[in-house]
Amino acid sequence: MPLTPMSLHELTETVLGCVCAALQVTAAQVPGQPGCPCRSCVVPGQPAWDWCDDPCGDPGDGGQLSVNLIRLFPTNPFPNEDRSVMGSRNCPMPTTTAAEIAVTLLRCAPTPDEQGCPPSCDELDQAAKVLHVDSMTVFNALYCCLNGSEPGRRRGRKYVMGQQRTVGPQGGCVGIEQRVTVALPGCWPCPEDSP
Fold first, then answer.
1. How do residues 144-153 score in pLDDT, each as one tens digit?
2. Does any domain span residue 190?
3. Residue 99 lies in a domain
4. Which of 6, 139, 154, 195 has its CA 20 to 30 A from that of 58?
5. Is the pLDDT score of 13 beyond 90?
6. Residue 175: CATH number of its domain
7. Whole-angstrom Cα distance, residue 52 to residue 58?
8. In whole angstroms, how far apart are CA 42 and each of 9, 162, 183?
């Protein structure tokens, strides 16, 4: 079924806001844990890794949180990809479209000092702690947010949590990428055929 023009963007904005809010709550509960980065946005395509320092001037606000679309595909039943040939007389359109999105959270990674010595074990341990807490926070935020994010549905959206992986360290950045596939039920009418 066709989708409303804003359904995908509204989903990505909802996910971004939910994850950012969860990071703020976690920062208040876990000593030394940074909150939501000041650079938080929905991005077209893969996020650029160019904002891992502390651009806002406040400790802990550095890094980047982004949400982007990986792919959009028809499903029947969700989350199985529907490979049916469309346009035949007796073939109904898929009832659901799936959006696979990625949530990427990047933080500063410990780097060698001015003499070229590697980061200390304490610095690496602290960076690992931040990464691990971020990992659980993002996972939990998606689980809680998507369960109640679709108005009019008692049980929330249909979704499948995908793989979460560590990305980096590279270019002074390290973080996580969490994928999730979300059902976007269609309800937008097709344009009328012109005579």
1. 988 865 555 5
2. no
3. yes
4. 139
5. yes
6. 3.30.2000
7. 13
8. 8, 19, 19
Domain count, the chain: 1
Q: What is the pLDDT of residues 19-76, one digit of tens each?
A: 999 999 999 999 999 999 989 999 999 998 876 765 555 555 678 999 999 999 988 8
- CA separation for the pair 29, 65 (Å, rounded): 20
Q: Which residue, chain included where needed, has tokens 């926070």?
A: 137
Q: Could you give the CA distance from residue 10 to residue 151 in angstroms, rounded to a whole number?
A: 12
Residue 191: inside a domain: no
For residue 110, give every residue at least 6 positions away whose Cβ sits within 8 Å of its Cβ, in sequence order, or none. Answer: 119, 120, 123, 124, 126, 127, 169
| SS3 state at 161 | strand
Burial of 6: CB neighbours in 10 Å, binned 0-12, 13-18, 19+: exposed
192 phi and psi angles, rounded to 5 deg: -70, 145
